[in-house]
Design brief:
315 residues, alpha/beta, eight-stranded mixed beta sheet, two-stranded antiparallel ribbon, 7 helices
Length: 315
């Protein structure tokens, strides 16, 4: 396995599981804010015997998204990134979202049926570029279970731990799930250009609308075209960790790849650093939003007298 998991200069990993994940923490006490990049990994395991060439398989990567958001700890946030490729196993799918057509033997465990799995984009991806099979054989149950145990579950457990710790300390937590998307989709055979940024909050069910609107307005202020929940509402990670009724807010961000990379060559654009600075401004703004909420929450808690009933007007 070739490693592409270099730790950004100036940041020490709080946790590094080679080939699986890296967590970066700020030097000071962390805000209750976690950014994660589940699809930017490119450490291809030795047992990944894919049929297509590696260059074609890399089209599944959210290439360079981890680099765009890696300054999060400098603003007081935590940052988690997967090191393995999503085409090997996808951390943004339910672990039971298995495409049974890929197996060479019966699957003895529960299955969560989904449109993504039917499209060949389930827990273990079946197709690349829409029609190209990734495997020229049926997969064994034991190898799928090994990927779940060794890669998928550790990532979910790490993200859950970071968010639970934040919520335990502050009574609230914010999660920003970071992705990239092709610059155009297709509908009825026609190419459909996409917005610069798509924010997904599962139609308001995964985070407070004030947070979604803050991020949307900030990005619009930088000159970007922003869409909400169209065509991406948020998948497994946002659905699992976003519970705004418990003050757990989870927002997905999809970035148009044409803004920072050559989609065909999978190479950074010459002005990559300029866009990276805009993302850093976004991270700083989100950190400021969270810090303001934490500060107001602390002030309210500090002003309450023993025996006072809680003021629920702002809940």
């Amino acid at each position: 396995m070739t490693s592409h998991s270099a730790i950004p200069p100036g940041f020490a990993p709080a946790r590094h599981v080679p080939g699986v994940l890296v967590t970066l923490r700020p030097a000071r006490r962390a805000l209750p804010l976690v950014f994660d990049s589940p699809h930017s990994g490119r450490d291809y395991p030795a047992d990944f015997d894919h049929a297509p060439p590696r260059d074609l398989l890399r089209r599944a990567e959210d290439a360079f998204v981890d680099e765009l958001f890696e300054t999060a700890p400098a603003h007081g946030a935590l940052f988690l990134k997967a090191l393995f490729p999503r085409s090997y196993i996808d951390p943004n799918r339910h672990e039971h979202e298995v495409d049974l057509s890929m197996l060479g033997e019966p699957w003895p465990h529960p299955v969560v049926e989904s449109e993504k799995a039917e499209m060949g984009l389930g827990l273990i991806r079946r197709l690349i570029k829409g029609t190209v099979p990734i495997y020229d054989r049926g997969l064994r149950v034991e190898e799928i279970l090994a990927r779940i145990e060794g890669f998928h579950r550790p990532y979910h457990l790490e993200l859950a731990s970071l968010l639970d710790e934040a919520h335990r300390r502050h009574g609230e937590a914010w999660h920003v799930n970071c992705h990239s998307m092709r610059s155009a989709g297709r509908k009825r055979g026609q190419s459909i250009p996409r917005a610069d940024i798509v924010l997904g909050d599962r139609d308001g069910s995964s985070c407070g609308r004030d947070f979604t609107h803050f991020v949307a307005e900030f990005l619009a202020g930088l000159g970007y075209r922003v869409a909400l929940n169209d065509p991406f509402k948020g998948a497994e990670l946002v659905a699992r960790f976003g519970r705004p009724e418990e003050s757990r807010h989870s927002l997905q961000i999809e970035i148009n790849r044409a803004l920072y990379m050559d989609e065909d060559r999978i190479e950074k654009r010459p002005d990559f650093a300029d866009f990276q600075r805009d993302v850093d401004r976004l991270v700083a703004a989100i950190a400021g939003f969270v810090a303001g909420r934490v500060s107001r929450g602390t002030a309210r808690a500090g002003s309450a007298r023993p025996g006072d009933a809680p003021d629920r007007r702002e809940e």
